[in-house]
Amino acid sequence: MTRLILVRHGETIENEQHIMQGQTQGTLNATGQRQARELRESLKAEKIDIYMSSDLARAVETCRILAEDTQAEVVTTPLLRERDWGGFTGRYIPDLKDEPWPDDIETIDDLKVRATKLLETIKEKYPDKTVLAVGHGIINKAIQSVYHGKPMNEIPRMSNGEARTLML
Questions:
Q1: Tens of pLDDT along 78-111?
Q2: What is the DSSP secondary structure assignment for residue 79, as one 8-state letter?
Q3: What per-residue confidence (pLDDT) applies to 157?
Q4: Of the residues 11, 61, 82, 106, which is catalytic?
Q5: Strand partners, 50
Q6: Among this protein's residues, is 136 annotated catalytic?
């Protein structure tokens, strides 16, 4: 059985400023770097075979901090990218409250297709391994939604630097 340790990247400057990051790179702030180091310490007893990350900078940086003591390579994949927020990308989140959603936002169905493909890929490519995968808030929610067979709104929000384990 493959074990997936699903992680949300550390806090970014943009999280702190309430900016809708979507598929922009983002930059970890000091808190985000500390969150990643603390998570690395809490996972020290784990034997992690594969370090995987979204190909966005904030997730890659988090994953590199997590893998730092092992010198392991970080494998990146666009399957772990955050939701594409289309016209909302780069905007101040509180300003979006009553705005109509643009047509160019990635759909929940498309997110779940990506999530399913990620889970299938990990299970097929890394049987009986422990994979640590760093993603983002909404894609991680979609992954857990597919895994648990529940609607996304029933999946609790992951905090920055939080990890959850799924057995595939």
A1: 999 999 999 999 999 999 999 999 999 999 999 9
A2: G
A3: 97
A4: 82
A5: 131
A6: no
Q: Which of 9, 14, 106, 136 is catalytic?
A: 9
* HSE of 17, CA atoms in CB hemisphere, 13 A: 13
Mean pLDDT in residue range 4-16:
98
pTM of the model: 0.96
Helices and strands: H and E segment counts in the chain? 5, 5
16 given a catalytic annotation: no
d(C-alpha 141, C-alpha 155), whole Å = 6
Fill in the amino acid letter for 66. L
Residues 57, 72: Cα–Cα separation, whole Å: 17
* High-pLDDT (> 90) share of the chain, %: 99
Q: Which residues make beta-bridge pairs with 74?
A: 51
Distance CA(107)–CA(103), nearest Å, equals: 9
Give the model confidence (pLDDT) of 131-162 as tens digits. Answer: 999 999 999 999 999 999 999 999 999 999 99
Find where tokens 């939701």 sit. Answer: 83
